[in-house]
Amino acid sequence: MAAFWNNRSNWLKSAHNTKWCLLGCAIGDFGTIAYFQYNESQLSILAILALAMFNGLLTSILLETVILLRAGFEFTKAFKTAVGMSFISMLAMETAMNLTDYLLTGGAILTWWVVPLALIAGFLTPWPYNYWRLQKHGKSCH
Q: Which phi and psi angles does 2 have, rounded to 5°?
């Protein structure tokens, strides 16, 4: 079993894939939180975080679709691949980012010191799953 987790090449590839997913998720997630942070809103913290997660998923799918289009995929195939890549990974990433924000600030609040911590949590949480998926099934984002 230990040998399963020792494939350096797949750790690097899964880190690369996780990085792109994180970028897409962070754009939608942090953008939503920033919007509500700097505008008056009657939404609850839970509603804002749920909307941030939803938007993070959308922007991650959009970014992955664009990356696949640039790699030569046709639009329909690129979109279906992006949606089906790893919804579990994206949900774990979004949950880790928002939970970090909430636990450290008590709300949906972006600060200079929370953003890097949320990004680290968002990267580290799904990375082992992304490695496992690549190692066991040969499935990767790119």
A: -60, -35
* Mean pLDDT per 10-residue segment, the chain (142 residues): 88 93 95 95 95 96 92 93 83 96 96 98 96 83 50
Long-range (24+ apart) CB contacts under 8 A made by 23-27 are 23/63, 24/56, 24/59, 24/60, 24/61, 24/62, 24/63, 24/64, 25/56, 25/57, 25/59, 25/60, 25/90, 25/93, 25/94, 25/97, 25/122, 26/56, 26/97, 26/119, 26/122, 27/56, 27/59, 27/63
Please tell me whether the overall predicted TM-score, pTM, comes out greater than 0.85 for this model: yes
**Position of tokens 């636990």?**
103
